[in-house]
Amino acid sequence: MQELYYNGKLILGVDHGYGNMKTAHRIFAASVEKEVQLGAKALEYKGKEYGIGGGHKEFQVQKINDEDYWILTLAAVAEELKFRGKYEAILHLAAGVPLFWVKEQKESFREYLLRERDVHFKYNGESYHVVIADASIHPQGYAAFINYDGDIRGNTVLADIGNGTMNVAFMQNGKPLAGKIFTEQFGVYQCMKKARNEVMRNCQCEVPDHIIEEVFRKGTADIPERYIQAVSEVAKDYVKQVFSKLREYGYNSDLMKLYVIGGGGCLIKNFAEYDADRVVIIQDICATAKGYELLALQTLKRTQSRGKAS
User: Fold this and answer.
1) Which helix or strand (DSSP H or E) is residue 129 part of?
2) Which of 152, 28, 165, 14 is nearest to 94 (CA)?
3) What pLDDT sits at residue 61?
């Protein structure tokens, strides 16, 4: 992917998930620990050391209530800069919040990401220096469409099914319809908890989350069939509930094409019965972060054009 710059600032997209943090090229589990566990990544900031990526962040409506997502932002910046062969940069951060909460959370999350402008820190033993010159906040989920090259004309539904929430937007010709945007706490983690309990009940054994996640992603794993069956039954019930909720909101598969992004897309792909001509699963887990970068560039250019016109 081509690097995007505006007035000398590198535009870097960060998708702040409850399950995973994503940038244009990197993904890691969204967790912050006060101690670095064996095998975890380490971030050193202001004399403190944090373990990164050892689990998942608990769902919370406001991501600014503690410093965890700030620490995770620094880790995401380091991951992406490392991928690009950089250790210093002047940044314009591009991030997002769910469509349903854009008006309420946009400015507060922007201020949260701009809490410190000149930042020195270490990540996995390597030093980074970034200047966060600015930040922009965009609609989560919708951003994934920016890189989608298919036909999104007509009446469509976007379902962004993450670890913590399911965000649904009804659209016409690619534009969200006012009053037809919904968010609820029905993410993949809800399915994970039920699958964990079902395995314990049927197999009298606790299976690590990463194995259950593998079944979610691939439909199978290198474990006995009875374990796979227990997880699969829960996953099938979960995706049935997803489609039931979509219909409650007004989704009609005869009249609307459905686009699914986020981790829930794997569950629908592997465990749901659906018409592949009417349901499109966008499988690039980094699509939203890439979309944030393009949306930020477009917004900055429009702002500059309006300034010149006035």
Assistant:
1) strand 126-140
2) 14
3) 56
